[in-house]
Amino acid sequence: MDYRPKYHASVRSGWGNDPNGMIYYNGKAHLFFQHYPHAPEWGIMHWGHFTTEDFVHWKEEPIALYPDQEYEQDLGCWSGTSIEIDGRLYLAYTCSRPGMQRQCFAWSEDGGMTFQKFEENPVVTAEQMNGGFSAGDFRDPKVFRHEDSYYMIAGTRLFRKGMHTCGNLVLMRSQDLKAWSFVGVMLHQQDGFPSEYFNLDGCYECPDRILSNGKEILLSSPQCLPQMGNRYQNKHCVVYISGQTDFETGRFHIDEYQDLDSGFDLYAPQTMTLPDGRIIMIAWKEMWARTHYTKEQGFVGTYTLPRELEYRDGRLYQYPVREIEQFRGAKTQLEQIRLHDGGFEISGFEGNVYELNLTMKREDAARMGVRILKGPDHETCIYLDALERTVVFDRTRGGREIRGEEADNCVRKCDIERIDTVDLRIFVDVTSVEVFVDGGRYTFTGNVYPEEGDRGIEFFAQGGSCIIEKAVRYELDV
Ligand code: FRU
After folding, report:
1. Burial class (CB in 10 A: 0-12, 13-18, 19+), 371
2. 327-476, superfamily in CATH?
3. What is the reported pLDDT for 130?
4. CA torsion sign, 384 to 388 to 389 to 390?
5. Given the CA of residue 284, which atom of ligand 1 is nearest to it?
6. Residue 436: which of 337, 329, 340, 307 has the closest Cα?
7. Ligand 1 test: best mutation among 17, 235, 290, most atoms within 8 Å of CB?
8. Which residues line ligand 1 at a C-beta cut-off of 6 Å?
9. How open is the CA angle 324-457-281, to the nearest 5 degrees?
10. How far is the CA of 140 from the centre of ligand 1 (A)?
11. Band (198; pLDDT cuts 50, 70, 90)
């Protein structure tokens, strides 16, 4: 079966991980990414490059950064971000060598297609900071402007008690992108925040920062954050931290710390702001150490549907980018169907490239939801569990076996407040399933590898009844 997605960005051949340098520049959206072009496995890193004008069709441009300098020998050009200054595009990235990660810049004179590296590179080293953090874990610069300075946030590990190190984020300041000074460590033990957040046996990878409806939010991908209830079920998870940066001390005063996605395969997200003000996020739609069956087709590296982010009602909401709606094709719909302890499979609803919008109202069902990509032996289930007060994404019978570092690679859950109705917006793209729960308040992202014919959709209730208030499926014609 051909696993190539139809409407998600995916690397043409070889390997792709983290999104990098996302920016709207020169009339297009640019998505750079961690790339090893020679084989579908992680190797010395380059920056690959996609552009898009509609967030659905992605053009793979020539490689933007090659690991061609002595300071990036062996490991290459790692993750980072970009910034436009006086019409020029600058990339900030980590040059990585064994035990030595430092920050570099490159800029473009031709509208963001080819890049030249700063002669002064590397411009930031762990030693030139306050000496308190590890030179071997200092990476993924997020560069932005605040008032009249440039700032950089990077992930690191702080030395504590001898050789023991703990993941954190550091803030630096510059006037010219070349000379940088240390401002401070961002994350501190604070009332109401478990010490696990500041005692990671890993690095806070790929920081980003957004401002939405007046709220400041950091996004980051901490390694090895311990699971807490149904949160942080992946060894590599993604958090968003709302609060406020003190630009004098570097300290971030935390309001809230949350799981960004409750699924299996989402990491290292990054954002860009569009001219109309929307904040668009894209993440790597894979996971470290998982089985990647697209390898058989010579590529590993798919990216999420771009998502619009908005902070409201005390949460960071995610909505599928609205441009996708232009590609809605054939529509199938049903309304007001009562299900009692059983399944309802309906012809005309099947497929593997579609958007499904489903609202179910619970009467007394213990569980209600939908089985998708269903065939004789396979199905992927998404449902509300009223007794547990969770929404569940179960890929136990989704298709080929998926292995990973976690004890459970088949089931993910998220806690929800409402159990009288559930609203699921599901985007399916061959192997990809993205679920937006209750208007984007929660999301699940996961890959499954079914067989060609596994295309059925079945709505179901268990342990009582429910009503399908409305189910609408659109074929996506891309
Ligand atoms: C996260 C990450 C980054 C690093 C890059 C290397 O997935 O480990 O921290 O810069 O991947 O490819």
Report:
1. buried
2. Exo-inulinase; domain 1 (2.60.120.560)
3. 74
4. negative
5. 7
6. 307
7. 17
8. 17-18, 34, 45, 78-79, 94, 139-140, 205-206, 267-268
9. 30
10. 7
11. confident
Reported confidence tier of residue 216, pLDDT bands at 50, 70, 90: very high
Question: How large a percentage of the chain has pLDDT more than 70?
Answer: 99
pLDDT grade for 164, boundaries at 50, 70 and 90: low
Location of structure tokens 């072009």: 37
What CATH fold (topology level) applies to the domain 14-320? Tachylectin-2; Chain A (2.115.10)
367 CA to centre of ligand 1 in angstroms: 39
Question: For the chain, which residues make up each domain, given as ranges?
Answer: 14-320, 327-476
Q: Give residue 267 CA to ligand 1 midpoint distance, Å.
A: 10
State CA 100 to chain mean position distance.
26
Tens digit of each residue's pLDDT (9 = 90 or more) over 382-421: 999 999 999 999 999 999 999 999 999 999 999 999 999 9
Q: How far apart are CA 370 and CA 337, in angstroms?
A: 14
Q: What is the pTM for the complete model shown? A: 0.98
